[in-house]
Each structure stands twice: as structure tokens, then as C-alpha cells.
Amino acid sequence: MNHSIHSADRSxxxxxxxxxxxxxxAVAAFGISARTGSDFTQTAHVTKAGKPVVVTSSDVxxxx
Length: 64
What we know:
Layout: H1 10-35
């Protein structure tokens, strides 16, 4: 087994690529399977603007 990626031969590089590809597919499959259990019916909640509000405080210090 080669412990350095620089001195690795072609089969070692191929093994690394295959392991990374399998791990990526596994993560994607897990994410997709976790998503399918949720409900896709979404409703938009509309919030309408009310009257203007003025917020004041007597503890405000003015710096000039």
C-alpha cells in the first residue's frame, strides 16, 4: 500500500476515485430518501402591512 498520493500507482488512484464516488452516491441517496418522507404541500402565508408605527425611547443618548 502506498502512503503517499504522489507515489501511488494507477490502481491506487482508481480505488480512491471509486471509494469517493460510492461515498458521494451514498450521501446523495441518504439525502433523497430523507427528503421523500416530507409533505410537499406548502402554503404561502401573506402578511399585509398595517398602520405605520413610531417607536421611541426616552433612554436614547444623542452623540454629536
